[in-house]
Amino acid sequence: MLTTATHLDDRGQAMTDGTAADPPPELDGPDGAALARELMRRMQRVRLFEEATIALFHAGELPAMVHLSIGQEAAVVGACLATRTSDYMTGNHRSHGHPIAKGARLDALMAELLGKATGVCGGKGGSMHLADFSVGSLGESGIVGSAIPVATGAGLAAQVRGTGQVALCFFGDGAASEGVLHESMNMAGLWDLPVVYFCENNGFAVSVTTEESLSVPDVAMRAAGYGMPGVTVDGQDVLAVYCATREAVERARRGEGPSLVEAKTYRFHEHAYGLVLPRPYRDQAVVDSWFDTVDPITLFHDRLLAERVLTAGELQALRDEVGAEVEAAVEFARRSPYPPPEAAWTDVYAPGHDPQEVSA
Amino acid sequence: MLTTATHLDDRGQAMTDGTAADPPPELDGPDGAALARELMRRMQRVRLFEEATIALFHAGELPAMVHLSIGQEAAVVGACLATRTSDYMTGNHRSHGHPIAKGARLDALMAELLGKATGVCGGKGGSMHLADFSVGSLGESGIVGSAIPVATGAGLAAQVRGTGQVALCFFGDGAASEGVLHESMNMAGLWDLPVVYFCENNGFAVSVTTEESLSVPDVAMRAAGYGMPGVTVDGQDVLAVYCATREAVERARRGEGPSLVEAKTYRFHEHAYGLVLPRPYRDQAVVDSWFDTVDPITLFHDRLLAERVLTAGELQALRDEVGAEVEAAVEFARRSPYPPPEAAWTDVYAPGHDPQEVSA
Amino acid sequence: MSAPAARRKPARAQQLGFLQAINRAQHEEMTRDGSVVLMGQDLRANVFGAAAGALEAFGPSRVRDLPLAEAGSIGVAAGAAMAGLRPIVDLTVASFVFGAMDQFVSQLAKARYMFGGQATLPVVVRAALYYQGGTAGHHADRPYPMFMNVPGLKIIVPSTAPDLLGLLKSAIRDDNPVLCFEDANLWGRKGRGPAMPEDVEHLVPLGSAAVRRPGSDVTIVGIGLGSWLAQQAAEELAADGVDAEVIDPRTLVPMDWPTILASVRRTGRCVVVDPANRTCSAASEIAARVVEDCFDALRGPVVRVTTDDTHVPFSPALEKQIYPTQAKVVAAVRRALA
Amino acid sequence: MSAPAARRKPARAQQLGFLQAINRAQHEEMTRDGSVVLMGQDLRANVFGAAAGALEAFGPSRVRDLPLAEAGSIGVAAGAAMAGLRPIVDLTVASFVFGAMDQFVSQLAKARYMFGGQATLPVVVRAALYYQGGTAGHHADRPYPMFMNVPGLKIIVPSTAPDLLGLLKSAIRDDNPVLCFEDANLWGRKGRGPAMPEDVEHLVPLGSAAVRRPGSDVTIVGIGLGSWLAQQAAEELAADGVDAEVIDPRTLVPMDWPTILASVRRTGRCVVVDPANRTCSAASEIAARVVEDCFDALRGPVVRVTTDDTHVPFSPALEKQIYPTQAKVVAAVRRALA
Ligand SMILES: Cc1ncc(C[n+]2csc(CCOP(=O)(O)OP(=O)(O)O)c2C)c(N)n1
Ligand SMILES: Cc1ncc(C[n+]2csc(CCOP(=O)(O)OP(=O)(O)O)c2C)c(N)n1
Ligand SMILES: [Mg+2]
Ligand SMILES: [Mg+2]
């Protein structure tokens, strides 16, 4: 039994009725439609990008495993779209969704996954370590929890420099047990840093459930211990995530300090795609049912139709656009050259550094 | 202005009235008197032991600085006496009080401070790193926060081995910001470990106030984030500390898990005795007044008289006994030999290890 | 549980894999000594494959899944050891040691000394050297040299499954903290080591090197996968009439200096193959010790074959070239002989 | 603030202490560049003595007291650097680096590389080597060799106040993370260095060694306090007719190999004095590099004078003997010459 499964049942059912309703203010009018379109576009980007990586995996074209955000698109996109491109963001090993949602170009991300020279990190980072500084993405971390203070520091820089920027810090329920989260949240609370700590609580750290790793039911319950607001939202509802994060971002931008937003969500695939765990730790039938019951894209799709925000045709066109974008990204990545061998030794230091050292 | 100063004013004043009253149940009858005597004896041991170190410091006999618990005796003793000798305890750089309160012999502790072979650690640990495994004292840590998981692990061992022991974990308000506290409290909460986290909140980490280091007013407010009870007590009231800790210890011993006890207390001397800070960070006149207003020994002394638990003569005799004990300890330490030079290289590994390495 | 049954097969016929060796060492020692406990992330789901059957055999009290809290985990193991347990901590990937460094140094390594011998810390920490597999910079460290600079820790880097079995069992019985770094490139090498010993008392003592190939012209010291590269290079060189002695130290602390130094005194030449980053590597230590203690016997430079001082790049086009290879070892031997 | 006024005195007459050098480097660079910020525990109270006047001059936004959270602090500095600041973090005592090791390795050292050059991390971390003062095992580490094993970090170990001034200023201007390890035994050595330069552009480039004493018979490389011990030993040996060259590398990464190796090629002998623990020390690296690259010129063993592989004992009866001393350096030189 999954504790995280229950909180969505109401919504899920409510959705399936699917009769017409009025949109909430956020989705109302032309601005609302534009927002809806962008939320959907970015969720589709994450989904289709990752489905393409699955295909690449099965084709044997991926040099390494990938940790997919499929099922978590609403959390990732709702949070990122609540920030500006100039705002900062850091993430973790489940890494594709964050930069995509933050607005990074798909072609350079896909090329990175294949270890190509045109990759967003020149092929040196790979799937777990995407970064696109041009859209405020300061990097994902393969070391769980390790980038949490980095986002906190970006918030500090924004504060000291008075730029009005905010830093969005993604971490998982597993990472919530790491000491650096405590150290970072304490500093952020102390100094009123413009940071939004965003927990993608998908119920698992690999095979370990939140019940087995967390001494409290909700990560958000820890916010009070740092003097900051903490809220738990339905992570399958992109608008709910967007609204909760927007509130936290606005608060941060007003100089009122950090917040903790926890999105309860679902990881639809295995911890890393294709990873086989010797011992089952969750009911595959339940997991399979999630595609029907709590798919954030389907839920939003149905809602937009029901609330007449976008038409089926518009939604299909949008999906097709993204599909083409992803296909082009895959083509770009495939056609791109590998980095030259000597790239292995550059970027260890900033230009101008002379290591005076030749390898044997 | 010190926020920690206010919470005692009522008690302080209440005490100075000094008219007769009935003792609380804990101090009632022969058992109560015995408890009172032991609480007082250990507080006096800490106080007189440390006053002796001050004298040694001025005489130039101390090889290094000492971090005194003077002013914090009620917190340290109230907590330790709520445990059994067979229970475990770890502490920090403010280190003399903990093993003394836990029941360690003064002579071996004092010899350790002088770096003598008869020291409790053979002269290798020194003031900040006292340990007396014979009374459950698993060691103090010069690295702030570093021993917190050690106490947690001792609690784990007690649980796995089913011994019924409890681990008492001392840390300061400064250490409360360290990540290992979070990691440890989460594990303890998760596994219902028999650990009592005990924060000696003396308002300062060297010169940094709790307002400058903590994002919440009370450390105890963080307990809820780990699913454990948290309580803040008057750290100058040895009985209040004793009762609060006893409750936490009993809970732990019953297998119901960890607790956090925070004692608001006062550091009467400089961070390390004799340390001169270039820039003042607290009002010396206020600090000086503490000896009159919030001295835990005076407060308890007056209370015991007022409540007729012990007589002035008994209290004086007890103090004299401890004075003699401390004097003997100093004599013992002075007369003891230094360790032989080769001791510098032993105890790096357990016996039987052959490093096959001779130093140049 | 099927693993124990499998173990009953006759020794000669069976070849041991790395993960089986770990599983067997842990299982045997946990059976022998009730104070041995196993802790790690995803242990019960047996994600890394070395804990099969442990939960069923020893129960949830002695087999514990850890939350993601590396510092806390090592510190908890230290405290549990001081209070009578003998924890084995599976840190999974060696790149995760950094978060726990203070606990390694300030508690595990120092507690016994600083408390004048009162503390005993029988803790084994296992971690895989997970390089060469496209995991990029955050999973591919080989950090044992850092720990060699810290007195109080023992360090093993087994390169065959039977050695891993025997060293790990010795480590679990040792009263000191022992770090076990397992070269993940050898996980698949089932069958390349000698046949599995059937003795549950199969112990390889800590601090004893293995001479993998006797020789007279040059001493090649190879660590982890490096010992295999050294052996392959030695075969290649043999065709050219160069007779290389290959030594696998197996334990880095305490290092078996007598074996290494005696060999170099005989051969007069030394090459060290170490998958760690070059600067301040185990290879550097061995080279320094050799020139310090065997100078008169030395007839050529001591040459190190290490990973370059760069980070591990993700791209398959970049990664392999930074590590030691058979060709680099051969070239180094030629330099040492020149 | 009185410090800046004092600085106006003529250069020749003034001798600089270590703490003044730090203060001056920080003050000048914070004045020059508004993106430089100062963070540390007890900075405002100026407990360690190097931050006098900073709060008054630059305000609380740029001068921040840190809570006790070493990992968080280094990570925050890394993030702040990626977002446009140039943080100086005063970690005070080098033994406190261990708690932050993951942030040093996984973020500070690796971020630029792993993100393909997108990140720039101009962070300076200062920490004192606080040994030899009776502080015992938890405050007396000399951990720079660990960091030498991590590519991406630069490391300086200044041994004179003017060098500290010039190196620290270079470090603050450098676009890479630089770790500055200050040998606290030299804090009191005001006046032993050359006169204070008056130039606010007094920069000592990272990666350039200083020849403290030219000589022809043996090269003594001395790190931190070791460079002073080497000079004293050299004077003692001069009376015996041994002419030692003393080199202070000043920067450990990047190491000035050309200067060191050229010297050994001339003298044919080498001794390294390094206050770090022996195994995998900077001395080991230098010895390894010397035997690898200068073998033909080498006429005797490379001898290391280091701290023994033990922890730092508290007792004054025990502590001093584990460290390098002048007598040990002299003995080592005699061995190198034998
Ligand atoms: C410091 C560290 N410890 C362990 C790991 C191995 N690991 C990678 S992801 C993961 C689980 C993380 O769980 P969570 O934070 O909930 O993120 P999710 O994978 O669920 O998105 C673990 C244990 C790691 N990469 N880094
Ligand atoms: C990891 C670490 N960081 C910094 C220090 C330096 N230091 C020693 S004690 C101390 C203050 C500790 O404050 P608190 O925990 O409140 O204990 P108190 O001294 O007030 O009893 C500091 C900063 C240290 N010893 N260890
Ligand atoms: Mg998760
Ligand atoms: Mg305090």
TrEMBL record, chains A, B:
Pfam family, any one: E1_dh
GO biological process: pyruvate decarboxylation to acetyl-CoA
Keywords from the named record: Oxidoreductase, Pyruvate, Thiamine pyrophosphate
Domain Dehydrogenase E1 component span(s) in chain numbering: 41-342
SUPFAM superfamilies in the cross-refs: Thiamin diphosphate-binding fold (THDP-binding)
InterPro entries assigned: DH_E1 (IPR001017), PDH_E1_Alpha_Subunit (IPR050642), THDP-binding (IPR029061)
Annotated region described as Disordered, given as residue ranges: 1-32, 340-360
GO MF terms, alphabetically ordered: magnesium ion binding; pyruvate dehydrogenase (acetyl-transferring) activity
Cofactor: thiamine diphosphate
Top-level taxonomic group: Bacteria
PANTHER family per UniProt: PYRUVATE DEHYDROGENASE E1 COMPONENT SUBUNIT ALPHA, PYRUVATE DEHYDROGENASE E1 COMPONENT, ALPHA SUBUNIT BACTERIAL AND ORGANELLAR
Protein name: Pyruvate dehydrogenase E1 component alpha subunit
UniProtKB/TrEMBL annotation, chains C, D:
Residue ranges annotated for the Transketolase-like pyrimidine-binding domain, each copy included: 16-189
UniProt-recorded name of the protein: Pyruvate dehydrogenase E1 component beta subunit
PANTHER family: PYRUVATE DEHYDROGENASE E1 COMPONENT BETA SUBUNIT, PYRUVATE DEHYDROGENASE E1 COMPONENT SUBUNIT BETA
Database matches in InterPro entries: THDP-binding, Transketo_C/PFOR_II, Transketolase-like_Pyr-bd, Transketolase_C
Co-factor(s): thiamine diphosphate
Origin species: Actinomycetospora succinea
Keyword Transcription regulation assigned: no
Coiled coil location: none
This protein's UniProt keywords: Oxidoreductase, Pyruvate, Thiamine pyrophosphate
Molecular function via GO: magnesium ion binding; oxidoreductase activity
